[in-house]
Amino acid sequence: MPNPRLTGLGCGLFCGVSMFVLAGLDRLLFGASAALYGVLFLLVSALSAVWVRRGDLASAPVVVPIAFAAGLPLLAEGEGGLGGHLMALVTALAMQAGWLYGGTLVAGVIVTVRKLRLMARRAAEREWERECERERAERVGRVRVGGQGRGGAAGGRPRPPAERRAAGPRAPRPPAQPRRTVPRG
Fold this sequence. Notes:
63% helix; mainly alpha; 5 helices; 185 residues
């Protein structure tokens, strides 16, 4: 299975184009079946949530409803000009709201699980780095009895940013001097 990593814009384009093409195929081959379009939307929603890159995870649940609406005009059959087509589109959105909510929920759940796993992995990496730093400090012999090690905290650990003392106030800068615009002469 391919493992692409889509940006937020790429995820939106993938979803929108996929749903438009699938809606066209649905109309040509199956006579505009709303149930088939909904099932395909669930599949596209899941794929976009899996394929979006880590930095753009929040974009997947946002773009999938837009993509649902991108393919819907091909399935909504309206009569009587622009007003009739708009009414058919609004009616189709209202009638297919379950599929829309379901696909958005699928993308949201997948993205949430991916984000939680990413946060857990980063926490484990930070803990591993702290362990390595402690072991390195013990090997060098910098850890003293009573917690008076290099980091200042018990056990020689460096203090987390919240426990560090704030730096004193900086000396004020001298005022800026205006440039001379008239040549001396």
